[in-house]
């Protein structure tokens, strides 16, 4: 199963004078009943997003599913949203 992942919007939040950036990521899948939006930190590994999506979809291990960017390239689990170039 291939799952395209795309950054949808960016939002700024501040916490104790430290600036944390979050983005909202839309995960499009063949399982239409799922809520496809996830809020992730820019410096969080994309592996965490994949694990959360698989838990919500009751798929099991995240390694059994392919996560792709909009161009069809497979997403590296050891990269962050910033390193991957998401908005």
TrEMBL record:
This is Rad60/SUMO-like domain-containing protein. It comes from Tanacetum coccineum. The lineage of its organism: Eukaryota, Viridiplantae, Streptophyta, Embryophyta, Tracheophyta.
């Amino acid at each position: 199963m291939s799952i395209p992942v795309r950054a949808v919007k960016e939002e700024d939040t501040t916490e104790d004078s430290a600036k944390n950036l979050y983005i909202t990521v839309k995960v499009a899948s063949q399982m239409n009943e799922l809520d496809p939006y996830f809020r992730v930190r820019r410096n969080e590994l994309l592996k965490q997003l994949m694990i959360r999506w698989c838990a919500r979809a009751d798929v099991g291990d995240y390694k059994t599913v392919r996560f792709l960017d909009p161009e069809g390239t497979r997403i590296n689990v050891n990269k962050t949203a910033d390193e991957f170039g998401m908005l």
